[in-house]
Queue: 4 jobs
Job 1
Amino acid sequence: MLAPTLTVLSLFSTVGLCKLYENVAELPTLQYDFVIVGGGTAGNVLASRLTENNKVSVLVLEAGPTWNYTTTPQVGANGVAFPFLRGYMLGGCSAHNGLAYTRGAASDFDRYANLTGDDGWSWNNMLPYFLKNEKWSAPADNHDTKGQFNPAFHGTQGPIDVSVRGYPWSEFEGHVLQTTKELSEEFPFQEDYNAGTPLGIGWMQFTIGGGQRSSSATGYLTSSVLSRPNLHVLLHAQVSKLVNPVQSRVAPSEPLTFQGVQFRFGNSLFVANATKEIILSAGPVGSPSILQHSGVGDATILKRLGIPTVLNLPSVGKNASEHAYSGLSWAVNSNQTVESLFQNPALYDQAFAQWNKTKTGPFVDTSPGTMVGWLRLAPDSPAFKVHADPSPGPDAPHFEVLFQPFGLDIFGPGPYSPTISLVLAMVSPVSRGSVLINSTDPFSAPLIDPGLLSNDFDALAMAEGLQLLLKFVGAPNWKENRYLGAPSVDIASMTPDEVVAYVRGASGPGYHLVGTLGMSPQGAPYGCVDPDLKVKGFAGLRVVDASVLPIVPAAHTQAATYVVAERAADLIKQQWGL
Ligand SMILES: *[C@@H]1O[C@H](CO)[C@@H](O)[C@H](O)[C@H]1NC(C)=O
Ligand SMILES: *[C@@H]1O[C@H](CO)[C@@H](O)[C@H](O)[C@H]1NC(C)=O
Ligand SMILES: *[C@@H]1O[C@H](CO)[C@@H](O)[C@H](O)[C@H]1NC(C)=O
Ligand SMILES: *[C@@H]1O[C@H](CO)[C@@H](O)[C@H](O)[C@H]1NC(C)=O
Ligand SMILES: *[C@@H]1O[C@H](CO)[C@@H](O)[C@H](O)[C@H]1NC(C)=O
Ligand SMILES: *[C@@H]1O[C@H](CO)[C@@H](O)[C@H](O)[C@H]1NC(C)=O
Ligand SMILES: *[C@@H]1O[C@H](CO)[C@@H](O)[C@H](O)[C@H]1NC(C)=O
């Protein structure tokens, strides 16, 4: 989720600007072993790992800067078309997301192994990649983190900083913790939700180190990586499509190849050739769009648009899954909420100056972070009459709850009064959507349909999730010192149908879209890429980003995207003997 973020983007703080090309004319060549489309969360991992071997030449094409998309009107959410931001900049979404570091359940990955027939995607086989990606870091306030995470499940040498919150909101956190004691049956304390069995409530982990954002740009494109002569990164280069398909195959089993990547720089089009592989890392919106503009997709759609079909691959852009987010706010009788900063411009400026100078204080966290919960529907939930349990296993959650010491409308115009909020996400959705092109112009936005709450199961489940939030703040400790005040919406006096209607009008996307180029077993008649991430029917063409996850994990997708890319780097090195 793109959480309201107080963490200032410090993209270039550790990125040497020296080896980033800002002009195509300065690139020494347009032929490389590997051309990576997109310098985002995944693309920079590949750029860094593949160029560890100095005989390998790599070009990264990055469109940058950030821009806006809008979804199609969401039928399941009262027809609203939501803004849909994607991180078109170095670091991609890892440079603008809410910094959540959540891996998902072991069963999410075991299900990927099952859906692909490749045990390499199982939790046990992916855990080493989580550790390789991660550098566990002290929080900005240096508080004692014993009992707040389990060191056995964390890396200490990787490129991406991970830490728990670095500024205390003790009164609010105290109530959350006390509830895990008072209602321990339903809301148990969880020491570390990133160890494979996430259920329970514990301290949230963030891709933050030293009070600053850690992104794939700062972590993987360090100045020493950027100074490698075999790595070129071109900015302001927006890819339109793949070109020069070699279609000479005589048998359908013989793979096709694209020789080049066409991109726009300024007002001109250029082509960069890949002698080994083209790697699409343009994200779940960009990658399927580029493939469709290249003539790879559902032939019916391509034909309707007049795009010559290179390969009919009907699953391209389909099977998108996304998380719906909603939540509730309560007034509180306390000054220890973020509103205290928003109410008082002098205090706000002081807090920002503190962060700017010492990387400490309330600006060190996103959201700002405190705690997170992972919960399941009751086993006898009426939602299960609508659809079988979509979660990957009994240890995986249906819900995420973000505990926030501020109201949901903190970025509204005010006035601000002390508020807390519990944000709810349905993290095992049944709904599916799509990303399909609607124009022959590769620079026009595709139709983005996350399918939000389009299946009734998801709306029913969300409604039950809101009841769980009420139960949570119903624990006795919230009444102490008249701490908890009135809720922003009186769910308690609504009928079940009214709560479902409320959910449909008060939910939005989590920006966790995946699945638009999903993996399936080798030879399967559906799916877009094989378990080694090669596009079906092609040689020398891979997709390495969140698009390949066949189902959204019960987690923010940043961590999963990093490990997909880390494993992909090994698969590619293996294939080419690098
Ligand atoms: C890229 O490949 C195309 C088609 O094979 C060729 O015409 C073009 O000269 C190549 N460009 C470079 C820079 O090698
Ligand atoms: C996205 O679009 C909205 C509405 O047009 C605008 O207010 C906002 O500034 C844009 N954000 C970015 C990052 O371009
Ligand atoms: C996936 O799980 C199903 C159901 O448990 C099982 O029948 C199937 O054989 C599994 N497939 C693979 C490739 O492991
Ligand atoms: C979507 O994925 C499922 C497996 O999760 C598969 O059975 C189905 O065929 C896919 N649909 C499309 C349109 O690719
Ligand atoms: C909040 O701060 C104001 C002004 O400092 C003070 O008058 C008020 O008593 C405080 N409220 C609480 C609940 O601490
Ligand atoms: C942040 O710090 C820089 C110097 O490190 C200074 O130039 C800038 O004015 C500071 N900004 C604020 C808002 O304090
Ligand atoms: C899709 O394209 C058609 C034909 O250009 C156009 O009429 C329609 O408005 C487009 N749909 C959207 C949602 O942009």
Note: Residues 352-353, 356 surround 2-acetamido-2-deoxy-beta-D-glucopyranose (ligand 6) (CB under 6 Å).
Job 2
Amino acid sequence: MIRRKAGIRLNRGMSEKPQLLLTPGPLTTSEATRNAMMRDWGSRDPAFIDLTRRVRTRITDLAGGAGTHTCVPLQGSGTYGLEAAIATFVPGDGHVLVLANGAYGHRIADIVEILGRRVSIIETGEDTPPAPAGLRERLSARDDITHVVLVHCETTSGILNPLAEIATVVADTGRSLIVDAMSSFGAIPIDVNAAPIDVLISSSNKCLEGAPGLAFVVARNESLAASVGNAPSMVLDLQAQSVGFQKTGEWRFTPPTHVVAALDAALHQLEEEGGVAARNKRYSENCTVLLDGMRALGFQPYLSHNLQAPTIVTFHTPADPKFDFTVFYDGLQDRGFTIYPGKLTKADSFRIGCIGQVFSGDMRAAVNAVKEVIEEMGVTL
Ligand SMILES: *Cc1c(COP(=O)(O)O)cnc(C)c1O
């Protein structure tokens, strides 16, 4: 048995069966994306420099930032990108206000504190989006807050936070907006100029459906230029990282070459699929199939429908004491589905993701597997 931080016990290596990942990431990738990792690249080879440039341009374009923003990729998972963004864009005397309604928001507040910057938090419940009016009031009062951080889709619950409204308030009050768009970028339309965002952070392995190992920011050019010398770190200095790309097109330190190649392939497939609008439609269908199917079995979703992002759905744990999460998890794995073994901080719950290379037929099969496992356990809903 291994013990997860969230307190759910799982049996190690129960199933050898290939798994469809119904988690918040890493996700199921396409064969074409995995195949893109089958060759080796020299990191200073012109072909790889080209590949990096293409990936950076594609991401900037996807964010609507052509001409105003620059994509700076960084080795590591999404959290590396978040820490690098805070380190780079918040100066030593900066004061960050984090809008937190889940674990990821609180993690960002911890990052700000570890980096020795001032941090304040506006906390709302895990099922409650931050209120734009309250934020306006806070920022209109004379205080020294310089940056506001919003988690666009709080993957803790799957709640979609009101990016456009918050961005308007932050712009009106002359502060800088940093957005954790980890589990929304690629799945939910974002335009860094329409709802003004100074720094957006995301990663390769969520809704872009790439392999894990790469984070990136899409940063406003002025913000990048103004951040020279801010970072109390060498590897997390995104300003220095971007200078490397500008000067030679090369990464400062060994890049995850295979992951960059996989992301390039994944971005190409996103385009072929019809862009963010088409991916949003597919994920929304997945989400609807999952919600309808689970509701029909008697499960209760945690969020009301208008707050639900089409990325991951939180369900209340059934009240029947015969429901054992470990048995449930293992039963689904035996049937080829890996769900997410994490809990909310308060409500007793479990989560099923609907993003990655998965389709409505897969979600129907997953719901069917849930039905079988529940029947096997003898759980009444
Ligand atoms: C996945 C995720 C992260 C980053 O997590 P890593 O494990 O470092 O990749 C950060 N914020 C949100 C909202 C996420 O969904």
Note: The pocket of pyridoxal-5'-phosphate is lined by residues 24-25, 77-79, 104, 151, 155, 180, 182-183, 203 (CB under 6 Å).
Job 3
Amino acid sequence: MSFSENLAEIEARISKACQKAERETAPELVAVSKRQPDERIEAALAAGVRVFGENRVQEAQERWGERRGQYSDLKLRLIGPLQSNKSEDAVALFDAIDVLDRPKLARTLAEAIQKLGKSPDILVQVNTGEEPQKAGVLPADLETFITKTCPEFGITPKGLMCIPPADEPAGPHFALLAKLANRYDLKELSMGMSGDFETAILYGATHIRVGSALFGERDS
Ligand SMILES: *Cc1c(COP(=O)(O)O)cnc(C)c1O
């Protein structure tokens, strides 16, 4: 299938899920372009897609550095783990950073934001499945992180992000993330990928991150 056929199908599934959830506003579709070949990126741009997700700073710089100049309405989101020494590059390139998850990163992001005079939207990643190998603030630590750590560095997160464990139903994780966001009055929920975005929409996702279902399988 062509990119625009995939896009039309995903958009139809999004509106169906919104109807089922009795939602009036659709979530923003973040096209996850990591490790996709150039011709698919060009097809996405030609189809009018402007919001893209990337999980590595350097790869994103290579893919989007020049295109930034051609498409003034591009919105780039960082959705993969960020090393604190890449904070300045990340703040320079991205419009949103979904992966704040530790005090050191809050500090380096805050420094970069000050220095560059840019303020990307910041979301806090939550490790809802409490998986040792996964990034994200543990649910039990979120209160301190949101009410003490972020304010200490002058960061006001807009929302929360999660990646549920691959081997569990996603619904309970999305429900937990929505409950936590509500508790701290955070408006944005970045959750749901190719396999589970309809479920995420039911639980109130404001941003869904869809890669392979839009672009096809990635290079490994
Ligand atoms: C790769 C990735 C996605 C997209 O995954 P698909 O299953 O291809 O839709 C979404 N979110 C994050 C954090 C990712 O790393």
Note: The mean pLDDT is 97.
Job 4
Amino acid sequence: MRRLAKAHVAQIRPYQPGKPVEELERELGISGAIKLASNENPVGPSPKAVLAAREALTGVNRYPDAGCFVLRRRLATHLGVDPGELLIGAGADEVLGLIGQTYLGPGDEAIFAWPSFAMYPIVVQAAGATAVAVPLDGDLVHDLGAMAAAVSPRTRVVFVCNPNNPTGTAVGADAFDHFVEGLPADVILAVDEAYYEYARRSDLPRAIDWVRRRPGTIVLRTFSKIYGLAGLRVGYGISDPETIGLLHRTRHPFNVSLVAQAAALAALDDAPHVEASRRINAEGLAYLGRELSALGIRVWPSETNFLLADAGAGAHDALLREGVIVRPMAGFGLPQHVRITVGLPEENERLVKTLRRLREQPR
Ligand SMILES: *Cc1c(COP(=O)(O)O)cnc(C)c1O
């Protein structure tokens, strides 16, 4: 058959999702596998969100509100912005895709750090633009100086993932503000804050404040992480009304399901769920950091719900055989590393015990 696919699409390396628990159990003929691989909230969704989703189900003969009116209004209050400064997507992933569709084409360049979120190169290539990946610095933190130096007349979009996935590291407000001040005005700045609600350092940049100071700044957040609604697909972008209006142009009208809108709305009213999720994560991070370090495994400081660990070559596959799914980092050029999502205490203990056992085994 004639090769019909656009070359820049055919050349995209597919996104590698975490292995589903059921698939691993079937492959190994085991049960009780655990997944600490996709940065999901192990606490579960807010019970209020589940109830709202269940109630919304009886109305799914109707199309959802195409403008997410109620959710946008509630979210605007929550964030201290105007509803017109918000675009709700089927996950932050959809908003990333809209940025690519709206601002990138052949001949354009988009800059992002590497390793960082695997969707950036996909979004850029899908638009036929050129991806400019700038290596993280020696501490695996965004090298904002090098990213600024990579800006060219062709640059249309700069992605900053803060805190960064898959390293868990974050840049501080001073470095971030300095970087933004130096960025040309005619470049879209997309600040991906998927883990914002987990971050604890006090000098985290206030990217949202730049939305009003610098048109063309887009902050992305999601209900998939701390709100525990990854399976329902709700995320959003915060930007100036003009940019939001442009992103809306190619958005599918009914992109966020009726059930998802209802659940997200209810999740915003469940502060105790978010608080508990944050606390359980902080305790899990501290535990994992301590125990892995004691095993001689280097971990990086994390502002997220996951931990980058240099567990050694073969660790990922060995854990998998023991029914513990973590994310391999070989695809990011870090063959010795794994990304471990913080789980519930018993899951974290199982991971530590398994790693300890694997280390004690003669090879
Ligand atoms: C998880 C994640 C997202 C996307 O989440 P959605 O489920 O699409 O809302 C975006 N960026 C980063 C860095 C992430 O880790």
Note: Residues 39, 91-93, 117, 161, 165, 192, 194, 222, 224, 230, 235 surround pyridoxal-5'-phosphate (CB under 6 Å).
